[in-house]
Amino acid sequence: MSYLETAVEFADNPDPRCPCVLLLDTSTSMRGARIAGLNDGLLALERDLQGDALARRRVELAIVTFGGSVQVLQDFITADQFAAPRLNAGGGTPMGAAITTALDLLAARKTAYRDNGISYYRPWAFLITDGEPTGEWRAAAERVRAEEAGRRVAFFAVGVEDADMARLAEIAVRTPIRLRGLDFTSLFLWLSQSQKAVSASQVGDQVALPEVTGWADV
Amino acid sequence: MGHAPVRWRALGAVATGAAHERRGAGCEDAYGYARLPGGLLLLAVADGAGSASRAAEGARCAVTTALGSLDHALRTGAPPLDGPRWRTLLETALAAAHAALNEVARTETYAPDARELATTLLLVAVSPRCFAAAQVGDGAIALRVAGGEPEIPLHPPPTEYPNETTFITGVGWREDARYAVRCDEDVDAVALLSDGLELLAVEGRTREPHAPFFRPLWSYAARGDAAPEELARFLRSERVAARTDDDRALVLAVRERDVPAP
Q1: What was the ipTM of the complex prediction?
Q2: Which residues lie below 8 Å from residue A11, measured CB to CB, with a gap of 6+?
Q3: CB A109 within 8 A of CB A76
Q4: Could you tell me the pTM of the whole model?
């Protein structure tokens, strides 16, 4: 190795984090092929992230499911320790409460980062649903709007098959995306690529993402 | 101090980040430097925004324009001897870069928005009496006084996220710009680096320079056989790539102490 490669010493800074909360619909309508596809997609996400040395350390994932009740299935964990769950489906679609839970989880994580002198990129919330919310959702939509306006989160909504895209458009500020068929794997690979790209500097509200092609119906 | 002319050794390099390679972009960092008669040294680094489609072009244009502005001012007039005059010179150079980038955007029909050329800009001018620096956006400028420890004389406004910064193309660049001028101090080494290297070179909590990063680099730059290819190899090395997937630019300058009289 050259002189510089051996002599130059690096500061001991913690890795900046990319926190991402997955909001997953596990209601009755997701039973069968849909939940199977979702589980395959999560496995693809786990593998793709763990194949990247930086992403393994930087990306942090949390999972909130909503099927009957809202469950924090996974609190924030670094990608290298993330194990894709095998989800089951059943129950109603308490989407509003799930969104609130997820945003609270993100806020708590940011506080933990700040308390420990760890820098972090703008957190992501990724909602995947095949239906429409049961129960109250307007408060959640208002919260999403406020968080986006304050640049505190980037909230993405993905509709699967029968999903009520119009309702999703009322909840998310960013235009919801419709999944092509049940190609969850491509969706999650896109998410993984996007997480890896997040260190690139942004102009204003732009999020420098890889193109949404292949897994979305335009 | 004597009448021996002041001379500087300078070298710079860039390396493309893995994240940039993944999306098919080339290196979007740029650097430049110039030595002028009278012991004057100009240095610049620019980091094109990852979300900008013409970031590489923006970074190069910013560097060329800003250095050109300083070069012109310092060849047509004596170097300033106080802070306010240096600041004016630097602000003029920044303004020239801002105007040039917006002009490029305006005259290009397919990219009417200057945000597609968005870039940060770090500028340094060193004269025998003064060190003057200006910064819009992230990255770091470090100096050394009389062979001592490195210092970082200015910091950009803090942002919540490390991938958010201000750009010289933006309408608010004047408010975002930071300046530092140090006169009658024995500044004998300078470094400019883009934010791809900040994790390695600057202590995150204190924002102080990590001395063991800068010392060997300045030692190397002072050597008669110092080569930019060696610096580039270092920036591309596994050790560096393991900690950052961003582009990185690094410019080093060390004052020559033993300059024989003509």
Answers
A1: 0.92
A2: B199, B200, B201, B202, B203, B204, B210, B213
A3: yes
A4: 0.91
